[in-house]
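$ run holo --ligand "zinc ion" --emit tokens
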Amino acid sequence: MIIDLKHIFVNDNSSQPLEYSLDMSDLEYMGEYPLKKPVKLKGKIFNKASLVRLEASVVFEYEAPCDRCGTNTRREHTVTLDKSLAVSIEAEESDTILITPDMKLNLDELVYSEVVVSLPMKHLCDEECKGICFKCGKNLNEGECNCVKKEIDPRLAVLAELLKDQNDD
Ligand SMILES: [Zn+2]
Ligand SMILES: [Zn+2]
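-- output --
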């Protein structure tokens, strides 16, 4: 959606509420399509003393298997937008300044890029998720399995590999 902001730019103390949703279900991330529901934006664009600002929150629901145990997990994330809008192309675009030389704002583009940079690096069903047993595949959040588990110190594993290589020579 493109919003024409001319009436905001030219009128001091004017404002326009924003409520809008964007379908991002075709976005592929980490082998999944996690944004199954439309992303929602709510906020306003306003002119205060000839300074035009956009304040909004963008809410998206992220649905994908837990990184550790694979259980399908949904989590809501909120991105807060607080931007100044500038018409001058001499202003430098940054995280907080948006350049809109023709007084038009492409909301789709803005929301899309803000959501992409806010996608979670880690997605867990629970911070304490125990994951799955690497031997039998049981979900350990549902209880212990009967596998004998040896704690493998990763440093010792490296050492063991090294010794094995030496013996092979
Ligand atoms: Zn989990
Ligand atoms: Zn097991």
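-- notes --
The helical segments are 6-10, 107-117, 154-168.
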